[in-house]
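Journal club side-thread
Mid-discussion, someone asked how the predicted structure for our own chain would compare to the paper's figures. Pasting it here so we can look after the session.
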Amino acid sequence: MPIIQSAKKRARQDLKRRARNMAARTEIKTLVKKCRQAIADGELEEARRVARLAESCLAKAAKRGIIHRNTARRKAMRLHRAVSAAAAGEVAATE
């Protein structure tokens, strides 16, 4: 345990930041899973909606320094690419 007052304060701040960062990371993971599940179920409108939410969450997390900005962009692009591929596959299946 820290003895110096500033170290005690730093420990308290770290706990708060860790909780906030973990919440953001968990939300990102949940949205990505929901989007992939919607794609697998063939619900393209739902997948598009969740992909937009996920991209917004990723951008906010990157802006706050929770995840790296390139990681955020990579995850967002992969989601959008998966949604687009699913949409293209559905169009090809209906023709």
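Post-session note: The chain has three helices and no strands.
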